[in-house]
User: Fold these one by one.
Assistant:
Number 1:
Amino acid sequence: MSNNPLRLLILGAHPDDAEYHAGGLAAIYRRAGHVVKLVSVTNGQSGHYAVSGPELTAIRRAEAARSAAVIGALAEVWDFPDGRLEPTLELRERIIREIRGFQPDLVLTHRTCDYHPDHRAVGLAVQDASYLVTVPPICSDVPVLRRDPVVACMNDLFTRPCALAPDVVIDVTCELATIVAMCACHESQFFDWLPFNQ
């Protein structure tokens, strides 16, 4: 366990994105005694072929909570609309407030050239927010940070419009069983939606 725990904030577009793209690193951080928070920016209301709206949102919130509990992470699902997310000023300011409030050492998010429009919107909003977390007049209701956290992009397998060229690669095979356990909590996605959508 760490005497000075680091703080990892993962901002994904949907309730399973943090686990799928960065669950291994989240598990490694938690095992080392660090603080991890998984945030889904959207409420996940559109990610199913038969269930949607408030019913699916409730399911996805419960799945996110169970998944985070596997490693003892914090979890939050925001209420931005799934499938209709844009990198608005409202989203940017919510992210600024989250980063300032949580005070992470490392923020992980989607690439701005991801295939999914919600992923791109989150990546762009985090990119835009990351500088402004140290600017006092912006979101002045929340204390300004004195230092910028490191902001990095989560892994993905997409080659268009451009393939990921990582600067840092971390072997997470030691946490493969944990990653599977976390993802398995998202039953509506990994056992219902993804097989249907293939």
Number 2:
Amino acid sequence: RILMADEDTLYGHDFPSEIIVDKLKGKEGTSVDLTVFRKSENRTFNVKVKRGIVPLKSVDAFYMLTKDMGYIKVNRFAESTYKEFKDALGKLQKRGARKLVLDLRDNPGGYLGMAEEMADEFLEDGKLILFTKNKKGKISKSFATDEGSFEDKPIYVLINERSASASEIVAGALQDNDIGTIVGRRSFG
């Protein structure tokens, strides 16, 4: 438990988490002195922490399930998601993956563009990924454009009731184009 940050008491007050985070955040490269209580040892100690950029990774895990089936868990669709996904997929293919389990369970979504790029990896050129309709009724369509590295290979997409937004775009694009198998519970939307 963090008791103090740079002489500011954090424990014992009813601070909202935003205030506590503000006390810990600062310019990259600067330090913050923390006073910490470790309950398991019943002791208090001080530690100096250097501030830095904390990357939020989108790919939680990737590994081989069998000699020819890979697994990738994507937890969000952020700015770096497509690159992380492509890197993981490439490594799995080098290990022999010819089938893939794409786990989008508990993925709340995020950047639509990342979902479109991911879906494009599995769809032939010209296949519809997504269409949207704005308030004025104008329809926009997004199509697969690049030759994907996993076209014509078996894919299984895992979803659940907490798979939303961009996760549903990927699963829906594959389902609508009869690519792969969607497994799990009904998604959020």
Number 3:
Amino acid sequence: MTRKTIEFAPASATPTLGGSLWAGSKKSSYKDLLLKPEHLQRKQKFPAGSTCFRLVPALAGSGNWMMGIHVLSHANGRHCHPRTINPGCKSVYDLAYGWLKEHQPGSLYSKANRDGYRLLADPHCLCWILVEEEGKPKARLVLASGYDGSRGGVSGLGHQLHSLITDSLNDGEDSVDPLAPEEGRLVGIDKTLPAGARYPTYRLRLGRHPAPIEDLFARMDPEETAALRPLEEVIHVPSEEEEWKLLETIVDPETVARIREDSV
């Protein structure tokens, strides 16, 4: 009986000392480009259970305490639609959607084609909060869905938060401004993930007692207060050329070239 020849993998596949079999072998190609790089680490991730935080009022130079963002999402990442800061502005993705709808309608995302190209923007919300971490208030950014629930399902956290504040301001004689520097309230959030559910559920509530924001600022480290800036300065909106390159990560370059040529 002939003995089987054993072949070994090339040296590059041999683990080095200190390596781990359980470490990820590939880095994720997903790129979240909604925020400028220096603010990415400030995105708040609410843990399961209860968390209390203080909303930050609109900062000088900002249009509001909460900013609506139009988000273009796909398998490889997400970024801001230019109309986020420039109402009425067209995106490269709008051009691509129109072209594909005319020439390759079957390639677009739909309920019947979950693998199709997703080229339309979804509503999101962005706001600053102060939340206790390791005994001190930290400046964090809440970036959450602004979906209002009109197409079924539960409304997004961003929409719920906006509604909580709006309803409180319009509560007649009992109205409270949860954002007021002196009389503003803490917001409590309960996060749960029901068995079998795809997304977590949130329950929001307002605190009963004033939480002066200056008291929180006084306890913050200097780098935390320095991080606070208008929301318009926090987001990243790609240039047109950047968007064409991003489009090529989900639509084949040949088709992108045709779309670009026909859009001139």
